C-alpha cells in the first residue's frame, strides 16, 4: 500500500493508488516541482555572483528601480499566462527579499 504523511503527521493511503489519471497528473507535478528547484538553484547561483560583484564595487545590495520594473514585467507575464499576478508578485517579492539578504551578507564580509 502506498502511504503518505500530511502536514499534521497523519498517515494516509495515497488516493491515486489505482487511479492512473491522478497518478499521471501527480508525476507531472513532481517533475515540474523538481524543475522549479533546479531553476531556483541556478537563479540563486547567479544572484550570489551579482552580490559578490556589488560588494566588490561598493554598489548597494538593493536596486528598487530594477525591482519595480521586474515586478511590473512579471505581473504582465503572469496575466498573459493566466496566472494570478498577485501570487506572482508575492512569489517574486519573496525571492527578491532573499537575494537582497544574501547581497547584504556578501557586503558585510
Distance between the termini: 52 Å
Determine and state the CATH class. Answer: Mainly Alpha
Write down the Rg. 19 Å
Question: Please, what is the average pLDDT?
Answer: 90
CATH architecture: Up-down Bundle
Which secondary-structure class do the elements indicate? mainly alpha
Number of helices: 3
Secondary-structure element series: EEHHH
Low-pLDDT ranges: none
Structure report:
The chain has 109 residues and is mainly alpha-helical. The chain has one domain (3-108): Chorismate mutase (Chorismate Mutase Domain, subunit A), CATH 1.20.59.10. The chain has helices at residues 20-56, 64-80, 85-108, and strands at residues 3-5, 11-13. A hairpin with a 5-residue loop joins strand 1 and strand 2. The longest helix has 37 residues, at 20-56. It is elongated. The mean pLDDT is 90.
Brief sketch in words of this structure:
With 109 residues, this protein is mainly alpha-helical. It has one domain (3-108): Chorismate mutase (Chorismate Mutase Domain, subunit A), CATH 1.20.59. The protein is built from three helices and two strands, in the order ββααα.
Overview features:
elongated, 109 residues, 3 helices, 2 strands, 6% strand, two-stranded antiparallel sheet, Chorismate Mutase Domain, subunit A, mainly alpha
Amino acid at each position: 500500500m502506498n502511504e503518505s504523511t500530511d502536514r499534521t503527521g497523519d498517515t494516509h493511503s495515497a488516493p491515486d493508488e489505482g487511479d492512473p489519471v491522478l497518478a499521471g497528473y501527480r508525476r507531472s507535478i513532481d517533475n515540474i516541482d523538481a524543475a522549479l528547484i533546479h531553476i531556483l538553484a541556478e537563479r540563486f547561483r547567479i544572484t550570489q555572483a551579482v552580490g559578490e560583484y556589488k560588494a566588490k564595487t561598493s554598489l548597494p545590495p538593493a536596486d528598487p528601480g530594477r525591482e519595480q520594473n521586474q515586478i511590473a514585467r512579471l505581473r504582465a507575464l503572469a496575466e498573459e499566462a493566466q496566472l494570478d499576478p498577485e501570487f506572482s508578485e508575492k512569489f517574486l517579492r519573496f525571492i527578491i527579499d532573499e537575494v537582497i539578504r544574501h547581497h547584504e551578507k556578501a557586503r558585510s564580509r
